Amino acid sequence: MQALARLCVRRPVFASVLIIALVVVGGVAYAGSPSTNTHLVVHAGDTLWGIAASHYPGSSIEQSIATIESANHLSGASIRPGETLTLPAP
Predict the structure, then answer these.
(1) Please, how many CA atoms are within 13 Å of residue 60, restricted to the half-sphere of its CB?
(2) Quick check: 83 and 48 in contact, CB under 8 A?
(3) Confidence at residue 20, expressed as pLDDT on a 0 to 100 scale
(4) Cβ neighbour number for residue 87 with a 10 Å cutoff
(5) DSSP annotation of 90
(6) Nearest-angstrom CA–CA distance, 62 and 72
(7) Angstrom distance (rounded) from CA 85 to CA 76
(8) 83 vs 17: which has the higher pLDDT
(9) Taking the alpha carbons of 24, 26, 29, 31 in that order, is the dihedral positive or negative?
C-alpha cells in the first residue's frame, strides 16, 4: 500500500517537472537567436533601392527604403560611398 501511495505522489511531481522542462525548452527554441541590425558600407553605385531589394527580399521596396532612411536619420534616398548604413533586422 505504501508503494502505491509513493507512486501516486511521484507521478504528479514527475509530470510537473516534465511539463516545465518542455515549456522552457520550447520557449528557447521558439525565441531562436535574437534579431540584430546589420551594418553595411556603401560602395560606389549602391542605391537605397538596390540595398533594400537585396537585404529585404519579398518585402515592399518602398517600405524597406523608409525603414533604412528612418534607422539612419536620412532625409532622402541620397547616400555616399564610404557611408555606413544600419539595416534593421526584418
Answers:
(1) 4
(2) no
(3) 64
(4) 19
(5) -
(6) 15
(7) 13
(8) 83
(9) negative
> What's the pLDDT tens digit per position in 36-84?
899 999 999 999 999 999 999 999 999 999 999 999 999 988 999 999 9
Reported as a pLDDT band with limits 50, 70 and 90, residue 12 is low
Backbone phi and psi for residue 16, each to the nearest 5 degrees, phi listed first? -65, -45
Look up the pTM and report it: 0.61
- Helices (runs of H) and strands (runs of E) counted in the chain: 3, 2
CB atoms within 10 A of CB 61: 13
What are the start-end ranges of the E strands in 1-90? 38-41, 84-87
CA atoms of 32 and 89, how far apart (whole Å): 14
